[in-house]
Amino acid sequence: MFYTPLRYPGGKGKLSYYIKSLIDENSLNDGSYIEPYAGGAGVALELLLQEYVRYIHINDIDIAIYSFWNSILNNTENFSKLVHDTKIDLENWEKQKNILLNSEKHSMLEIGFATFFLNRTNRSGILKAGVIGGKAQLGKWKIDVRFNKKDLLKRIEKIANYSSRIYIYNLDTLDLLKSLPIQSPEKTLLYLDPPYYVKGQGLYRNFYEHDDHVAVMNALNNTNFPYWIVSYDNHEEIKNIYNKFRIKEYDLQYTAHKKRTGGEIMIFSDNIKIPNIHLGK
Questions:
Q1: Which pLDDT belongs to residue 202?
Q2: Half-sphere exposure of residue 42, counting CA atoms within 13 Å on the CB side?
């Protein structure tokens, strides 16, 4: 079952079963869950709507993604009206693309809706990608194939009903980790899914250089949160950066232009108990 209205490159939503097991294994039920790189926030929403956690904290430094979450939580009626009324065609695709390219001239609602529109109409949900079916619309799939308005509006309404239990931020991850006012860190799970080490530049509007990945590891090494996990693409540089922590390798099928199985790793804080279940696809 899909809870998030956003499509997102990567298959991290398929890890929700494993994260539920981590919560059970470490007695973190009814606590807080934090995603500093929220994106589509698929795991966070599943944990909240299935009542595994009491609160979720979702953050994204990309103003486009933040504007989407802010709009559906704090301007739900107007956002839903845009979804209902806007025709899914190339003319509107060009219009929404132009809004994102000139976001400084537009309201948060306009930016949030443009983000949503392009996410649902671009290949693999990538904001930097082209439109599904191409501009000639000659492909098997057309621009509206991933835009079931009735279903998407139901998802948006359901999330908005939980708004009092959802906290959103538009911060750099390092700033977020320093400033989060969590009352009970011992009842909190922190899940970081940073931009891919190798292909992040092609997938995300905000990507990392090597030193950025090192800075995140150092922040986690000094954090007051005892329970955290990090997922990455399986790369020797990442394993070297996190070599003092426990690491598990696994495979995960994800979609970015086409389905394929990629090598992934999960990194665990020293305090977290690792459940004895299979990690991967």
A1: 43
A2: 17
Amino acid 252: pLDDT: 66
Describe the crossing of helices 108-121 and 90-101 by its angle, rounded to 10 degrees: 130
Pick the CATH number of 63-166 from 3.90.980, 1.10.3470, 3.90.1720, 1.10.1020: 1.10.1020
- What average pLDDT score do residues 164-178 get? 95
Residue limits of CATH 3.40.50.150 in the chain: 1-61+171-281
For CATH 1.10.1020, the residue range(s) in the chain are 63-166
User: Tokens in use for 138?
Assistant: 């000659």
**How far is the C-alpha of 219 from the C-alpha of 211, rounded, in Å?**
12
Residue with tokens 């809004």: 99
Q: What pLDDT digit, counting tens, does each position of 94-146 carry? A: 999 999 999 999 999 999 999 999 999 999 999 989 999 999 999 889 999 99
Give this prediction's pTM.
0.90
33-78: pLDDT as tens digits: 999 999 999 999 999 999 999 999 999 999 999 999 999 999 999 9
For the chain, the average pLDDT equals 91
CATH number, span 1-61+171-281: 3.40.50.150
Per-position b or e across 225-236, b if 16+ CB within 10 A of its CB: bebbbbbbbbee
Residue 188 β-bridge partners = 32
